[in-house]
Amino acid sequence: MHTQASCLSFESGFYNHASVSLAITCVKPDQILGVDVTFAPPYCSTGLQKLAELRSRYGSPDAERFLARPGIRLAVEYGSDGLACQMEIEPGATTLLFKTAEEILDEAVPSSTRGKLIHEMNTQAGWGVIRTLEYENVTIGLSGTACPSLLPNDCREQVQHAGATFKRAACQNLPQ
């Protein structure tokens, strides 16, 4: 199966015991941004996918996913210092509202770690919304669709992207 959203392309394949998904950028079609392998339930607790075996073979992970809310995950990528460098909220099949995304970001990146607010940008064109908050230590971004006040019942508010990128030196060599 192949789908395309803005400048990302997604390829998926289903096999006997696993499904594989690839995220590919449209700018550089040869560049794979991410790979997700999901094993079918009877096979997910055998072989190399055991956490202890993976850590023994490859060391500590440089990225993790946490269940932030039912159906909503928080993906965290770590820098060479072992601290979070990038966080991204993944709504999955759940509709992610701006209020929920902001609550998760407030929990994951408390104001005490952000530093002073340097710049705030809010842009709305039609139903599209982009919000960027640049702090001394981190940049937080949210984008999605918001309902005009005239049509609250005919519109679905939805966040397409929400995340945080830290500005420490240990985060400078992460793939973009």
Characterise the protein shown here.
- The protein has 176 residues and is mainly β.
- The chain has 2 domains: 1-59, no CATH class; 60-176, no CATH class.
- It is 13% helix and 47% strand.
- It contains 3 helices and 11 strands, in the order ββββαβββααββββ.
- The protein has helices at residues 51-58, 98-108, 111-114, and strands at 2-5, 8-14, 18-25, 32-39, 63-69, 72-78, 84-90, 117-125, 128-135, 138-145, 158-166.
- It has a 7-stranded antiparallel β-sheet with strand order 5-6-7-11-10-9-8, covered by helices on one side. A 4-stranded antiparallel β-sheet has the order 1-2-3-4, with no helix packed on it.
- The longest helix has 11 residues, at 98-108.
Radius of gyration of CA atoms, rounded to a whole number: 18 Å
Spatial strand arrangement across the major sheet:
5-6-7-11-10-9-8
Question: Judging from the principal axes of the Cα atoms, what is the shape?
Answer: flat
How many DSSP H or I helices? 3
In short:
With 176 residues, the protein is mostly beta strands. It contains three helices and eleven strands, in the order E-E-E-E-H-E-E-E-H-H-E-E-E-E.
Question: What is the fold's blueprint, element by element?
Answer:
Elements lengths: L1 E4 L2 E7 L3 E8 L6 E8 L11 H8 L4 E7 L2 E7 L5 E7 L7 H11 L2 H4 L2 E9 L2 E8 L2 E8 L12 E9 L10
Antiparallel strand pairs: 1-2, 2-3, 3-4, 5-6, 6-7, 7-11, 8-9, 9-10, 10-11
Features:
2 domains, about 15% helix, 3 helices, 11 strands, mainly beta, disordered N terminus, seven-stranded antiparallel β-sheet
